[in-house]
Amino acid sequence: xxxxxxxxxxxxxxxxxxxxxxxxxxxxxxxxxxxxxxxxxxxxxxxxxxxxxxxxxxxxxxxxxxxxxxxxxxxxxxxxxxxxxxxxxxxxxxxxxxxxxxxxxxxxxxxxxxxxxxxxxx
Length: 122
Fold this sequence. Notes:
The chain is built from 4 helices and no strands. The model has no long low-confidence stretch (mean pLDDT 75). The protein is mainly α and 122 residues long.
């Protein structure tokens, strides 16, 4: 979109070119979405996605404040996605800390057994 290219160009926050930066961000967003869909480490994925959305949204709002209230802007979409990520975060199982290995069983004592040593013939 020409507006997105203009916003990235105006911000000066791009690597190589505004188009290359938008393509890289798109690939990263798609990858993050797939990680969330697969369910791999959902809390960490939701946290990373939310952080990226907040940073991108703040950057766009600072560079192009006219887009803050635009109904079809990425800012509105990102706000909704941040809420969705918060829901994923709150409903994801918390990681269970792994316990260290239990101590080994004590060796049997060398004292004699209490059983009788007689052989029983049937």
